[in-house]
Amino acid sequence: MSQDSTIHTATTSLIAPNIPSYPLTSSVPLKLGIMASGNGSNFEAVAQAIATGQLNAQIQVLIYNNPTAKAAVRAANWGVEAVLLNHRDYKSREQFDGQIVEQLRQYDVEWVILAGWMRLLTPVLIDAFADKIINIHPSLLPSFKGINAVEQALAAGVKIVGCTAHLVCLEVDSGPILIQAAVPVLPDDTAETLHARIQVQEHRILPQAIALAALRK
Ligand code: GRF
Fold first, then answer.
1. Does residue 8 carry a catalytic annotation?
2. Ligand 1 center–CA 45 separation, angstroms
3. What does pLDDT average to in each consecutive run of 10 residues of the chain (217 residues)?
4. Range 3-215 classified under CATH 2.40.40.20
5. Please, are residues 191 and 2 in contact by the beta-carbon 8 Å criterion?
């Protein structure tokens, strides 16, 4: 192993705060509703953490808004019910969020996990699950909010990036931070290679963040 890769290996494990002990959370399983728009690798990470006994929770439902979202295929593979709510079928964001709230309630969801949910939330949803919505974002917030966070970081020339799991408030990518992980930017990185490195860490911190948020309650 070269000196460089040693440094990079060490850096990729920088997570704060770290929760070392398993299983995470209380004796009563947390009831999760996961919302995803696309690939769903974070959905998968949460499902894996539950399956391996690291996170004491169950996924009540996946809500997805794009008919072709791979997250729905992943849900089927895990035997998790998936509900398609297509935002294009609603007149307003509020009406759309109202329908989401109704579905989450029907599935008896306690914690809402935004795992690549690419729609802005309104108070209809945020107030219905106050301090119980968790988002994963591919930057070290408060830097690089909004879409294309990885491209923004590359354009800015920063040398350390990462991901943040945080509670959701009305302002985009701004709620209280639960956990962050840092990763290095390598000289030949593209947005794709850098995002892939960040996602490895997303998959580690999201289950931990869910546990941490629940333990704080
Ligand atoms: C992740 O990078 C997440 O941080 C962002 O959207 C992406 C979703 O990835 N909010 P996936 O669909 O979970 O693979």
1. no
2. 11
3. 43 74 83 98 98 96 98 98 98 98 98 97 98 98 97 98 97 95 96 97 96 88
4. no
5. no
Peptide bond into 67 cis (omega under 30): no
Can you give 128-189 as a three-state secondary structure string? HCCCCEEEEECCCCCCCCCCCHHHHHHHHCCCEEEEEEEECCCCCCCCCEEEEEEEECCCCC
- What's the whole-model pTM score? 0.93
Which tokens go with 196? 């892939």
Answer whether 66 contacts ligand 1 (Cβ < 6 A).
no
Query: What does the domain layout of the chain look like in residue ranges?
Result: 3-215
Which pLDDT does position 13 carry in this prediction?
A: 62
Determine the residue of 35, 39, 41, 42 to mutate for testing ligand 1's pocket, defined as the one with the most ligand atoms within 8 A of the Cβ atom: 42
Beta bridge partners of 84: 64
